[in-house]
Amino acid sequence: MKRPNLYDRLKVLAILTMIMDHFGYIFFPEMIWLRLVGRIAFPIFLFLVGFNLSYKRRWDLLLRAIMVQIPVLILAGYFHFGTYALNILFGIIIGRAVLKGVEGRRSKIEGQKKGLSTLWTLGPLPLRCMLLTIVLLCVHPWLKGFIDYGSFVILFPLMGWLFKVVEGQRSKVEGQKKGLWTLWTLGPLPLRCMLLTYGVLIFACLFGFTQTIFGFSSLQLTILGGFFIILLCIFFVLGQGNHFLPLGKKIDAGVLFISKNALLIYIFHLLVLGVIKIFLMWRQSV
């Protein structure tokens, strides 16, 4: 696959908006527009976690999550800045663990049905995903006290997984159509409508959750809603195909570097900003 592609550029967009958000949160909390732009980062990161379809156990991710949590605990415990909630890396670990179970169940169904593997889309798995979504939305008010973004650390990876798998099944069916009855004999529209409905539901819930935290103005809410609509459209485009998007050698090299080192950039910038904030608050207290 040629790179940088749409997946890479989405990761870069998430990194840049995340840095703006954290910079505003730590040093310029009154600049609400930085926080508004930063709302783009989370859904992109977590959607791509699910879309990637790679959920193997990674102990290095756990160690990095613990490392990032240290300045968070210091700021919350000694300087009463922020909360004790677990950082987003713990959320990614949880999301990957849940999706590993979901993906394992799908693979088991495909193995049992052999030639009719695409019929899993009509089986119990989508219903279980919907039930899981309902449960997660119900426990979100409780879960958000323990981890950043609460249940959304599972819901957005689940959305990414659905987009990837449904489009993958569509391609498989189109190559095996003879004598095979599936939902795709009605065309791709029904399942895409299901994906659209699910995406709108999750983004709408995130929209409401975001407003309860930030209390954005009407104009800011309109802009945020526009951001979310555009993101959902981009997710659909990504589901159709991870398109090669060249913009010149130097720009492409920068995009690839950021995309390949996104996790390290996330950790490094948080540690640097956290240490600076601890130092500034310590100076104010002495």
Q: How far do the termini sit from each other?
A: 56 Å
- Shape type: globular
Percent range for helical residues?
Answer: over 70%
- List the uncertain runs: 115-122, 178-187
Number of strands: 0
**Average pLDDT value?**
85
Oligomer: single chain
Largest sheet: none
Q: Proportion of β residues?
A: under 5%
**Helices and strands, in N-to-C order?**
HHHHHHHHHHH
Notes on the structure:
The chain contains eleven helices and no strands. By secondary structure, the chain is an all-alpha fold. The protein has one domain. It is globular, with a radius of gyration of 20 Å. The N and C termini lie far apart (56 Å). The model is unreliable at 115-122 and 178-187 (pLDDT under 50).
Keywords:
0% strand; 286 residues; mainly alpha; 75% helix; globular; 11 helices
Task: Summarize the SSE layout with pairings.
Layout lengths: L5 H22 L4 H7 L2 H11 L7 H20 L9 H26 L10 H20 L8 H24 L13 H26 L3 H23 L8 H12 L1 H24 L1
Short description:
The chain has 286 residues and is mainly α. 75% of the residues lie in helices and 0% in strands. The termini are far apart.
